Amino acid sequence: MATLCNFVDNQAVPASNNETLDVTSPHTGQTIAQVPLSSSSDVDTAVAAAAKAWPAWAALTVNARSAKLMALHGLLTEHTGELVDLIASEHGKTRAEALGDVGKGLETLAYAAGAGALGAGQATYVSGGVLCRMDRAALGVVASIVPFNFPFMVPFWTLPLALAMGNTCVLKPSEKVPLTMARVAELAASLLPPGVLNLVHGGGAVAQALIDHPSVAAVTFVGSSPVAEAVHARATARGKRVLALGGAKNHLVALPDCDLEMTARDIVASFAGCAGQRCMAASVLLVVGEQPALIARVVELARALVPGSDGPLAMGPVIDAAAVTRIAAAVRGAAESGAEVLLDGHGPATAFAVRQAESGGFWVGPSVILHRSPKDSALHEEIFGPVLSVLHCADAQEALAIENASAFGNAACVYTASGAAAEFFAQRFAAAMIGVNVGVPVPREPFSFGGCKRSRFGSSDITGDAAIEFFSTRRKITTKWSVPADQTWMS
Ligand code: NAD
């Protein structure tokens, strides 16, 4: 069984200790690789390589760095099939979802390759003979700590723009899905100078060693809210620039005038796509007024999903046995507190249960729960699986109040045929990424990705125009060479 290596200075480097974790196939429960739990001295080695590479990388023109990123885009595009295979095998996504993971990551890479224009400075005469200009200086070494749910796309929220702006990077992939980015690091080694992109495997201890390292200037984190909050506090206490994206509990509001078929299909795609393991996945459906036909259609479409890796109705497994247990407990807990389980993804007779028993993998079908009490914990806590909680609301105001009270603020969506109603919700949702008839409202480049409340700790977004600001320092240079005779430098 292969044990992965760290990747430092464009070379595979074994971790210095023998501690490892199994990387498990969600399809079968079988071990497919071993990932090292690297030591703090491995972190030191990777950060030292990144720090050493930084001055020369930062000294390149932005166009020279962009050219390397464009070449990387070409190389990774050529290897898309291989990356899709890796994502599907270590994460369990269907092939279409894995292709989306790679495609969205490549979009951020293409955007970052335009950093020459996007990150350009400004210059203006501010008084007689005095020119003030602003350019952007790189920060130094950026550490990127990422979750399991998008093995390629989420690392690519940080790396392209951080590199384009002249920083060097140390990535800690999720220990649950380390294979995809290990292969990306190998491929990138043929194009990027040594030390520019490094990778250290491990879990929380490696992440903490990275955050604490005095040569790390900035930290990006994506993961669950309790860890995001702790990472933000830890990095801030050490004077680092930090952005930590956390978990979510996304609300969808279905108004009585919504298009039934389009809405039902969109809701199912949102809550069951990627087996519910998206931070933008629908979690709570607030049905305004009586809409039994909509709820029935959602259940019907969800019931039609089948366990698998390919095809329009396929839904993949969840990441591990702990996820199966957590999801089952959430559905059982809701039933015990009086909710009606309209569709039980754990029902013994479902195709998912059969697949789980036969394969030893982590197969869980979609669940739809009709709640009677707004206090049910399934309505408030992140489950991170294919579970939709449905709650009736008397009117739009009640739906809005429930959404606004959520501790999280990642995404929210309204389904309606009315522009005025859509605008009413778009202006009042307490989330930062809002959909109108779009249940996974991911803002694509140049728009930036990031939530609010407990979905984001730190003030920046992680991609797009906002991230240019995060990955650079505005340097203001004021210059006077001569003063026109009719002016003073004070004029
Ligand atoms: P997680 O919080 O368990 O792990 C995320 C990363 O943190 C991993 O690399 C892990 O090794 C590391 N880590 C674990 N303990 C740590 C510690 N004490 N200090 C520092 N780092 C530590 O999250 P996960 O289960 O991998 O991913 C799912 C979560 O990520 C969900 O909550 C989901 O909503 C969230 N997520 C959020 C976004 C977003 O944009 N807001 C995007 C994707 C995923």
Task: Summarize the helices and strands and which ones pair or pack.
Layout lengths: L5 E3 L2 E3 L6 E5 L6 E6 L3 H20 L2 H17 L1 H12 L3 H18 L2 H4 L3 E6 L2 E9 L2 E5 L9 H10 L3 E5 L6 H10 L8 E3 L4 H9 L3 E7 L2 H13 L3 E5 L4 E5 L5 H13 L9 E7 L3 H12 L2 E2 L6 E2 L5 H16 L3 E4 L7 H9 L7 E4 L16 E7 L2 H9 L3 E2 L1 E5 L3 H10 L4 E4 L15 E2 L2 E2 L6 H7 L1 E9 L11
Parallel strand pairs: 7-8, 7-10, 8-9, 10-11, 12-13, 12-20, 13-18, 14-15, 17-18, 20-21
Antiparallel strand pairs: 1-2, 3-4, 5-6, 6-24, 11-23, 16-17, 19-22
Helix pairs in contact: 1-8, 2-4, 3-4, 3-7, 4-6, 10-11
The protein binds nicotinamide-adenine-dinucleotide.
Question: Could you characterize the architecture of this molecule?
Answer:
The longest helix has 20 residues, at 40-59. The strands form 7 sheets. The chain has a 7-stranded mixed β-sheet, with helices on both faces. Strands 9-8-7-10-11-23 form a 6-stranded mixed β-sheet, with helices on both faces. Helix content is 38%, strand content 23%. The N and C termini lie far apart (73 Å). The protein is α/β, with parallel strands linked by helices and 491 residues long. It folds into 2 domains: 6-246 and 455-477, Aldehyde Dehydrogenase, Chain A, domain 1 (3-Layer(aba) Sandwich); 250-436, Aldehyde Dehydrogenase, Chain A, domain 2. The protein is globular, with a radius of gyration of 24 Å. The chain is built from 16 helices and 24 strands. Helix 10 (260-272) crosses helix 11 (292-303). Helix 9 (225-237) links the parallel strand 10 (216-222) and strand 11. The protein has helices at 40-59, 62-78, 80-91, 95-112, 115-118, 155-164, 179-188, 204-212, 225-237, 260-272, 292-303, 321-336, 351-359, 396-404, 419-428, 464-470; strands at residues 6-8, 11-13, 20-24, 31-36, 122-127, 130-138, 141-145, 168-172, 197-199, 216-222, 241-245, 250-254, 282-288, 306-307, 314-315, 340-343, 367-370, 387-393, 408-409, 411-415, 433-436, 452-453, 456-457, 472-480. Nicotinamide-adenine-dinucleotide (NAD) is lined by residues 145-149, 154, 172, 174-175, 203-204, 207-208, 222-224, 227, 230-231, 245-248, 279, 382, 384, 410, 451, 455. It comes from Coemansia aciculifera. InterPro entries: Ald_DH/histidinol_DH (IPR016161), Ald_DH_C (IPR016163), Ald_DH_CS_CYS (IPR016160), Ald_DH_N (IPR016162), Aldehyde_DH_dom (IPR015590), MeMal-semiAld_DH (IPR010061). Its EC number is 1.2.1.27. Residues 16-474 form the Aldehyde dehydrogenase domain. GO terms for molecular function: methylmalonate-semialdehyde dehydrogenase (acylating, NAD) activity.
